[in-house]
């Protein structure tokens, strides 16, 4: 038993070592990839449930890796998040989104937004405000055209600083969306203190809208949103029956594979032109 115990300890530390090594390699690789422009933003429509028209696009990163091929974010965002490299990656992608917006705004007259996911790490430092200021100036973005998605846990860690940062973005009408809403801690008490604008109901709640049955939690979130004057987006809509329920509950915005998957910019613009 003793040797087995020792063996287990050794096995554990070896696997830990491999894991750390893997993470370190991935970090270096991400840095290299930023330099080589291997990250591409895909765009998924956020539509008005009433008529299916596009209100915004969520930007979702994809990695064209020279050896690994097409890589989705779940395999590298968590590592970037842990190492802090996410700061650099997010800014790189925000700039890409701003470039895309500038390009689209030249040809598309109907208003729409691009919403970009960023780590809550940015909400611990006022530098983020000047970065966004610069983006708005450099790419001559229209007010309200860029939106930020963030998960709530990082915001409540430092409420007053987060509030300052969100207020610093207000001159550009940058809207703040709480992503994955309903998961995590959801200390509802802070919601009215934060100057946010949009709640995105997590897919797990939408999954429960099976067979045309409503989920009381979704209804509760919608009621809460009305009283706080927040917009609501339901994410991860995969079935018509889910969309039908959302229509009945007066959820304004939706997103999901049922209607459209994330797509490259060239396809997204075609989609937008067909769903204005
Ligand atoms: P998220 O922000 O919650 O994004 C929604 C995820 O659900 C996306 O996965 C999207 O492709 C997927 N999705 C959309 N509709 C459906 C549906 O109907 N069914 C299903 N099963 N999935 C759907 P993706 O693109 O793999 O991104 C995963 C996560 O990676 C994102 O979750 C976000 O947390 C993170 N992420 C993606 N892009 C970025 C980025 O540019 N920056 C940062 N910081 N994080 C990002
Ligand atoms: Ca998101
Ligand atoms: Ca989400
Ligand atoms: Ca998520």
TrEMBL record:
Limits of the EAL domain: 23-276
Highest taxon listed in the record's lineage: Bacteria
Name by which UniProt lists this protein: Bifunctional diguanylate cyclase/phosphodiesterase
């Amino acid at each position: 038993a003793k040797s087995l115990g020792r063996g287990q300890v050794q096995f554990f530390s070896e696997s830990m070592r491999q894991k750390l090594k893997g993470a370190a390699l991935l970090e270096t690789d991400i840095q290299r990839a930023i330099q080589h422009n291997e990250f591409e933003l895909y765009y998924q429509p956020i539509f008005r449930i009433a008529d299916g028209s596009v209100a915004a696009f969520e930007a979702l990163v994809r990695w064209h890796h020279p050896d690994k091929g097409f890589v989705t974010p779940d395999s590298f965002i968590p590592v970037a998040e842990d190492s802090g490299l996410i700061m650099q990656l997010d800014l790189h992608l925000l700039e890409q989104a701003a470039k895309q917006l500038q390009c689209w705004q030249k040809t598309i007259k109907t208003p729409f937004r691009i919403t970009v996911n960023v780590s809550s790490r940015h909400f611990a430092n006022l530098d983020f405000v000047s970065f966004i200021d610069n983006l708005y100036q450099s790419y001559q973005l229209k007010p309200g055209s860029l939106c930020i998605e963030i998960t709530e846990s990082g915001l409540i860690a430092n409420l007053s600083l987060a509030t300052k940062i969100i207020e610093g973005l207000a001159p550009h009408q940058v809207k703040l969306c709480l992503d994955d809403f309903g998961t995590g801690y959801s200390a509802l008490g802070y919601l009215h203190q934060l100057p946010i604008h949009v709640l995105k109901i997590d897919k797990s709640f939408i999954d429960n809208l099976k067979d045309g049955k409503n989920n009381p939690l979704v209804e509760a979130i919608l009621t809460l949103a009305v009283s706080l004057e927040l917009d609501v987006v339901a994410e991860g809509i995969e079935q018509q029956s889910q969309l039908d329920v959302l229509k009945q509950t007066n959820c304004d915005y939706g997103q999901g594979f049922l209607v459209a998957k994330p797509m490259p910019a060239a396809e997204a613009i075609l989609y937008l032109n067909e769903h204005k």
